[in-house]
Amino acid sequence: MEKLTFLFFLSFFIIASCTTPTSTTTTTSLPFAVDSIKGTVRNETGEWIGRIIDYVIPSQYSDIATKTITVVLPPNYSQVNQYSTIYMHDGQNAFNYDPYGHGGWQAHTTINNMVKDNSIDPIVLVCIPNAGSNRSYEYTNQSTGAPHYINYIKDRIIPVVEYNYSLVKSKDGRIICGSSYGGVISLFAGWNESDTFGKIIAMSPSIQVSWITPMVTNNTKPNIKLYIDTGSLEDPYQDTTQFKNTLVQKGFVENTNLKYVYGIGQDHNEEAWRQRLPAALYFMVGK
Length: 287
Prior knowledge:
Mean pLDDT: 90
Helix content: 25-40%
Distance between the termini: 84 Å
Strand content: 15-25%
CATH topology: Rossmann fold
Largest sheet: 9 strands, mixed
Radius of gyration: 22 Å
Number of strands: 9
Low-confidence stretches: 1-23
Shape: globular
CATH architecture: 3-Layer(aba) Sandwich
């Protein structure tokens, strides 16, 4: 009887010691097969027929929401060619609408027109919507939210997009772009995932976020191409200019791997970012 009791407790101890402890943030154990994610072509008209496709991309994290991303193909897209890709945060504002009435980024029409004008190389646009009330967590929480969100893009969104389309599958072919907090998370990606993203567009980055400047000053300059900007109405004391100066001190060279624009009379909104987007695109993929 004593031997049976001893064996029972020994078995219980072995099982308990092999059990993985739970945490508040978990990853799914389900396998992720990129070929199982099917796109839905939007019912568009005219030149946009067949060029705007939605994909539901499951998240591997419990704290990062599954998102429906939107892929916009350039004019005359062909599987024969290879294209750069721009991944845009706040993707629901990338078209003609934003909740504040500024008309959205209209990034799809800007890219479309610049490609047709032969100003830039054709690129594929990927719009990633924000998480609503959880937006600041995903974009500015340095410890978990931001790393998980960028890993979601790197490990889930990029594989699906690059599986389905003919793209440059290296850092030099990937641009990550955002404004305000979206600019913050773009800078985070540049300093923490420069092997994945080689080109960073940070419009009106909220540099008052406490960890942004220390991240730049305390770490080695990454091998990236960087565009940053701001508007005179949102930044009258030119704090972003001082941030740009810090970047130069770290080794960035203006008009080579760094472009800075100070928009006179422009504020912190989609209208201003829409107006400055052509300069950012030209710096990254201009002809």
